[in-house]
Specification:
Order of helices and strands: HEHEHHEHEEHEHEHEHHHEEHH
Helix content: 40-55%
Oligomer: single chain
Low-confidence stretches: none
Structural class: alpha/beta
Length: 326
């Protein structure tokens, strides 16, 4: 029921995903009067529907959802994960509410204080996994270390790299730079042999691909994410404006579009839709609220891979390994 486009976008993407992933079974959760008409011609062989009488709105305060809306679609979906009826949950709804409900319904892994939001960004020919992207605004050093452990475990499972390079986002590459939390976290990470820690990473170094996992607090991470999205949109608008203002560029446009097709596809934000909520006792994925059908399809794929990798169990194992060395 979440997202700007709601069920009319999410349901077609879910139906398409069944043909892409032969072992996938989907349970849709939402308002019966809205969802059931959209499923009139659906094949229910690997699809089921769970009605919900309530839904969490974009402007609902996260704290209020714990006390009210017990029959909300988001809560029911998370309870299905908790009860073992499904392997993972994907939502395009209220991010704060999803985080609060996921912590309350599923609980966090042993040794994890708070979950973190992680997403993959395309950089310099590869992906960089960045966390936290907004769940935790202020983070002490030991929490940044938790993020590094979770991010490294997730990146290892999702990318196939057994020793992903972990960097700590900082204002300089020198060890004496940064605030107290970052300096303390750097010392702890340096002392953890279970992590492939490569040191401080500056913002430009992130986009040069100097690390596979970049760790920061949620305030910095969210600003980084929104700024990079804004820059990408600005450059696209400038390019369109330049083409529109030149007859030569308009004439060459088909050739340029053909030559840059792969680059444009690799940097298409829809391909990377789906941020993982790491540190929970279950797989929970958050889709961008503005996602279209193709972006929802990509988020379903990311959720499938996280479930197949049994990501929470892998993270729990990496936590135990790293804790024994700290």
């Amino acid at each position: 029921m979440g997202g700007d486009r709601g069920p009319r976008c999410i349901i077609p993407a879910a139906l398409r995903s069944l043909s892409l992933y032969p072992s996938l079974h989907i349970t849709l959760v939402g308002a019966a009067d809205v969802v059931e008409p959209l499923l009139a011609d659906a094949d229910f062989d690997r699809l089921s529907f769970r009605p919900a009488r309530e839904q969490i709105l974009a402007d609902d305060p996260p704290a209020s959802v714990l006390r009210g809306k017990r029959d909300a679609s988001m809560r029911i979906a998370l309870e299905l994960v908790r009860d073992g009826q499904v392997d993972g949950c994907l939502s395009a709804g209220n991010t704060g509410a999803l985080m609060v409900l996921a912590r309350a319904v599923l609980g966090t892994l042993e040794g994890i204080r708070r979950p973190a939001i992680m997403a993959a960004l395309p950089v310099s020919g590869r992906l960089c996994h960045v966390l936290d992207l907004g769940a935790n605004v202020d983070c002490p050093a030991d929490q940044l270390v938790e993020f590094a452990i979770m991010g490294a475990a997730a990146a290892a499972e999702l990318s196939g790299d057994s020793a992903p390079r972990v960097g700590l986002l900082n204002i300089g590459s020198e060890t004496h730079k940064g605030n107290r939390q970052v300096r303390e976290a750097a010392a702890l990470l340096q002392a953890c042999p279970a992590l492939n820690y490569v040191g401080p990473i500056e913002g430009d170094g992130l986009f040069r691909g100097e690390a596979d996992v970049v760790v920061c607090d949620g305030f910095v991470g969210n600003v980084l994410l929104k700024a990079s999205e804004g820059v990408a949109g600005y450059l696209q608008a400038e390019l369109r404006s330049a083409v529109a203002g030149s007859w030569l560029l308009r004439w060459l446009a088909p050739l340029v579009l053909h030559a840059t097709r792969r680059t444009r596809e690799r940097h298409d934000p829809a391909r990377y839709n789906g941020a993982s909520l790491l540190g929970l006792r279950g797989v929970v994925m958050k889709s961008h609220g503005a996602a279209d059908e193709g972006a929802i399809l990509a988020a379903i794929g990311h959720t499938v891979r996280a479930c197949e990798a049994r990501l929470p169990e892998r993270i729990a194992g990496r936590i135990r390994e790293c804790r024994s060395t700290l």
